[in-house]
Every structure is written in C-alpha cells, then in structure tokens.
Amino acid sequence: MMAIVDLRSILDNIQMAADVAIIGGGPAGIAIARELADTRIRVLVIESGGTDYQAETQTLSAVENIGEPRASKSVEPTGRGYAGNLAWLNDVAAFELRDRILGGSSHTWIGKCAAFDEIDFAHRPWLPLSGWPIARYQLLTALDRAGELLNLGPNFYDKRLFGLLHSRPSELGLDEQFLRPFFWQFSHTLDRHGEPTRFNRLACDIAAANVDFLTHATVTQINLDDQGLRPTSLSVESLAGKKATVHANTIVLCGGGIENARLLLASNSVMGAGIGNQHDVVGRYLCDHPRTSLCSFTGHDIDAIAEHFNFYGLTHEGRTHFYLRGLSLSPEMQEREGLTNCAAYPVQIHADHDPWGALKRLAHGSSRAFMQDLFAIGTSPALITSGLYNRLIRKRGLPHRSTELRFDAMAEQRLDPESRVTLSKQRDRLGQPLARVDWKIGSCEIESIKRFAQIMVDEFDRVGLPRPQLADWIEADDGGAAAFMDMAHPSCTTRMGTDPLTSVVDPNAMVHGIDGLFVAGSSVFPTPGHANPTLMLLTLAIRLADHIKRRHEIEQSPKASIRDRQLSTHHT
User: What pLDDT is recorded for position 136?
Assistant: First the structure.
C-alpha cells in the first residue's frame, strides 16, 4: 500500500525532502508517480485534499469569474450535458468543477476519451499560434500506455476503426469533404462494471518504497534560488494551520488548467510578475470546450438515427470495448472556411418507462417506483430481446425507449491572449489570491459550431436520414443568442512551445528558463482540440515521466560531465 502522511497530524514547520515533488494528486500527478515508482528517485506527491471529499477543502477551488458563460435575459442557460446521478454537475459554477481530493477530477468524470486529431498538431494559417512543437507520431507509444492505464481499447477514433468493430457501421454516404466519422470510448475499471477509472484507486495500488503522499497539504508558494534559475522548495500549508517546507530540485506542477497558472502567478517572491511570466504569458490563452446542443430528433426519427449513431463494440485482448459513434468537421472544411475543429456526439433522453433504465434501477436497488419499473420491463419483451441480441451478438448499444435524441457539440477554441487567468484581489482561507477567470468565447468558435450544424442538416437530407430540428439560435442565425457552458476542461494557460513570448513551457514541459520546474496537465496543450483532455494529458504526463527518469539518470551518474547535465535539460 502507498505511504500517506496527513500534514495535519505531523509537527508544524517540518522540513521534508524529495528528488521529485509532484504538486497535485489528480490523474497527471498520479500517472507520473506510477511511472517513477520502483526507481531510485524519491517522489513526494502533495495533495491539497485528502482521501475523502471535504466541503471545507473544496472552497479553495473558488474563482472570481468575470467572463463566460455570462447570464443573459435573452439566452437560456445551459448545463454541461450530464444526466442521472451526475446531473448535479451541471449546476457547479463555471471553472469550479475541480476536485480537491486524492484522485482529482477522476471522481466526477464519466470516462469519455478520445485522442487528438492529426490536424490538431498542424500549423493552420487561419488559426494564430496553431501547431504543436511535437508531432503526433512521437506520442503514439505514450498514447498507448495512457490507454492501457485507462483500460481502453485500441486508440483509433476515426474511420480506421470500422474494420476492427465486431459489426461494421453502415456506410451512410456522407460526404467526407464535409463530415467525418468520429468515435469516443469510455475508460472503465476492470472490477466495477460501468465505473470509470478512479485515480485514487490507482494511487492506492502504488506500493513502491520510493513514493510517498502528503495530503491536506496545499502548496502556497514555489520557491526559487536567488537568481530565479532553479526551484529549491515548496511552501505547504493545511487549513488547520500546519505548515511545512518540501525541498526538491525537480518539481512537477500538476494542479490543472486553472491552478497551474494561479500558483505560478502567486509565486512572486523572486520574480515579481510570477514564475515563468517574464513576458506576461502565464494564464493567457485560456481555453475550454464550449458545449451546446446543435439539433434534436423526436418520435420515430430517434430510432432511425440511433441505429447509426450509437455504441459499437470490439474485442481486444479478451475484453469488449465500446465506442460511441459521432461526427466531426472535416479538415478540408476547416481549412476552406477558416473554422476550428468540432465534433458532435449523440445523447438520448430516456423515457421514464424505458425498460433498460428500469432494469438498471432495480438491479442497483435505486428504484423509486418499483411497480412501474416492473411494468416497464414486463411490457417490453421485444425491446429486451432485441437489446440482448444487440449487445451480446452484434456488440452494439442497447435500444432504448427515448423522448429525444440530440447531438451535442464541443468546439476547439481559437487562441485569444485576452482569454486568461489572473490573480484576484479576493483571497481564500489560506490568504492566497483567488484565480480571476476571464474566459472568452470568440466568433470563430460560434461560427464553426453553426456551420457544423448546417452541414449536418444538409448532409442528412441528402442521404435520406431524418431531418433534425436545429437549435433556435442556429435556425435564426443569431450567434448572440448562443448558449454555452464550460466543460471543466480548462487548457492552454501554460502552453507548450519554443518561443517564450507565446508559451510558458518548452517541448519537454519545463518552464522556460527555470531548470527543474515542469508542468503537466491540459494547461500545457498548445491548442485545445475538441476531444476530452484526459487521454492526451496522460499521454504527455507519461512522456514527461520518461524525460525525468532520463534526466535523473544523467544527473546522478558519477561520470556525468557538466555538458551532459546541460544536455539532460534540453533532451527531447
């Protein structure tokens, strides 16, 4: 079992030491700790929360939000699209859906995963600052390792998946110059059906003597040497007032898209503008995935669409993995009209008398209307039979009795330096400035989503699929009436690049000019893509862990020259 020390239970002002200090016990931090386990590197993971949720600790994630989504009398508010037991997540304030608990945001995710497209890594002349400093092919090995960590199937998310699926999807005849098939898969635990990977459980599986966890410990300052060239230690504090200092030469900041920027900006005792912020870049280019509903289907049209846009299974290494089929805007269309990358996925709203929902409630002991659920099952033998055939033989999604099927979309954002995280004058319980979040949704994203929906209607009409009902604002061509919500996917606030004028970390995720200070998580994405970020941020975290191991081996070698140590800093 892992070794956990609760800061509240030890001596005040204690001095601790590690070779690598990881700030944040969420997916990125735990993935790096796992990769460094059973090495000669002493690792300390510092987590603001504990092993259980505590409302008092969660207050430290409050932000001052001065940007989107804005309240408006003319715009109907929208949630994040969650349903069922997770519907409460729709009501969490923008940019505050961040879990201060060991395991981080994996406690409130549904496991949805996809890899970034080839176009996401490319320089696109119509999108300023697009292009990654690393190519997609360089990440494929780490991508597969991240997929294994999440218990995913093969990392294919486009038409290449068709030939691997147990029952091949129908060729609908959609023009791929406009729309492309896109798939998502869902992370899951091996021993709990339907539950996504929870990283607190992965942390508990770390039994290495070189990895320790410090909980209820919020890092309030990253301390640098007098020249501001290297990190030396971390100032840590609990809500109960206990303090500690953690000494480490290598520090990895894994606090998420908001907290990474906040802590760098607040660590200003040596660098007045904050660490890595000589060019006022830290916190800029804040992106999320603006989510909205594009269109919907009702009545008999639901089944006609669900037959094609649903779950498809394949068997890989003895396990069946299901992929959700949706659509994405083609690269050709993006280039032709100067649009961002977008994708849409089907969401079914099940009727109260859906037999599969009733069966699930009864099986889980959560039924509030026992007789009605029994009636729904007993009067639907055909739907139950066809569902079993679909799932067990065809390896397809279950047929549901639904009241609506809609397509929800998430869009890539065009980078905007005025969309940003800064420090608020308001302070939290530890006296630290809150993050001041000014998220901006630009006309490029709005136009991209609108065109995506219009193309879907035209293409569905052309191939004989039912015609969807467009969202009101798209039908009226009124971008000002568009309703969006953040998806708790903040990114790009410490973006990766080769130019310190427009980026915070280099291609190895080390803060420009600060030897030994690294950043992991979606904040280092150069551009955000449209895909849910967890799979890609884990890919980069695993890549970073490999780099730290190589760097440590070189630095600890008795034969290493000064030049070798310098090269370890710049090794890619």
Answer: 97
